[in-house]
């Protein structure tokens, strides 16, 4: 039966492994040992010739205009949306803590009015609510997209944009809650900030990696 698959790997000589290979032994039915790649980045390489596609005509014009539109139109709109969402979240925190709605927004000095930091309850409760909503949206995304497939194109576009708007707004609130907690309730010494940054980077690397594939094999033993 294996003869039917003799040609399956003939083109592998054109595949170049860019990153280092991390592997561990796996036994097959014949008792021999194979290697399984855990993390790899591959690129298809044509050894005979290099095909370069150059934009022509309207595609060349679009190639030139696209970064200009992104820099002059889309990026300012993105910054405006983020800034408006941030200010609305600050207004919400001011309302929850009984502060003036323009506190921390109008640049005035409120020291004499004895306004201080936002309460931990308002920050933590808001953060937890946002996380619950994000979890619900994440768990229900398959049902949502299945529902979209049955809708008219116009309705589908409107609902999808509303979904993106809700997600973006929740991400802004989530970001600001974390930012404010760190800004108001953690030390500001550079040593603490440096250690916290390195620890966060390490945790991020571990979480985004495939935990089940992090075994390292030395001399046939896993460590």
TrEMBL record:
A Pfam family annotated for this UniProt entry: Fuseless
InterPro entries in alphabetical order: Fuseless (IPR032751)
Record field: transmembrane: 61-82, 124-145, 157-178, 190-211
Keywords: Membrane, Transmembrane, Transmembrane helix
The keyword Membrane appears for this protein: yes
Protein name in the entry: Transmembrane protein
Source species: Rotaria sordida
